[in-house]
Amino acid sequence: xxxxxxxxxxxxxxxxxxxxxxxxxxxxxxxxxxxxxxxxxxxxxxxxxxxxxxxxxxxxxxxxxxxxxxxxxxxxxxxxxxxxxxxxxxxxxxxxxxxxxxxxxxxxxxxxxxxxxxxxxxxxxxxxxxxxxxxxxxxxxxxxxxxxxxxxxxxxxxxxxxxxxxxxxxxxxxxxxxxxxxxxxxxxxxxxxxxxxxxxxxxxxxxxxxxxxxxxxxxxxxxxxxxxxxxxxxxxxxxxxxxxxxxxxxxxxxxxxxxxxxxxxxxxxxxxxxxxxxxxxxxxxxxxxxxxxxxxx
Length: 297
Prior knowledge:
With 297 residues, this protein is an alpha/beta fold. The protein is built from 10 helices and 13 strands. The chain has helices spanning 2-33, 67-78, 91-99, 114-117, 159-167, 179-188, 198-208, 232-247, 250-258, 271-277; strands at residues 43-48, 51-52, 56-58, 64-65, 83-88, 105-111, 121-122, 130-135, 151-155, 172-176, 193-197, 211-217, 223-227.
């Protein structure tokens, strides 16, 4: 009887060891198949916006394109991910969508601020630039103080909204879900101006005869890719991919393509190019107006 009991004990121990080995192997395989803890292994689901040309926008075929889109795809390629799915959202919904697990990453020239870092984590930065107030030519607004008493449009949840709340204290801020809606309001006269990113404004000024009343730098909140808190594997991998895309000249090539007449922030150039041109870490001159980039198929 004792022998039989010992045999049963040995069998139970061996069975437990076998199960542990199998489960461990399954866990290792799963980790290998999904090293970045993505919603769908092998695919990065991206929340973005479709009307922020030349950063992120949809072309005539309904496909997402722009500087941020192409740069992120290059970064994803550098970490071994070829399948990237972009989905349009209101800007204000991007960070919450990433935080609650609907999306793996938020990509839309999203400025890194302490307030936003309470909701999501960010990768290293990859872009910095200017903000502008866009108005009709006869609006009579030439400087920030001139916004007092005027209705000024901003995209809800954007860096421009945060800046305007702080610096346009006398203005009546009107919040919109996206730039297209705000520009429609500007064209109809329901707002006196729309405060947005400088590069994104170029397309609207060309199309609708609007002007940039004044520009302000936004180098204190450069753009990064938003990811959920705690996904350090994905964040570190994307940081590595960003560094590689800068070092191999991909960032420079895409910047020249999408911002042809704008000065290049030296911190994003390949080391040798940065050393040849300047050691400055931020551009000092406001970008000049550029011809509107044509939609790509």
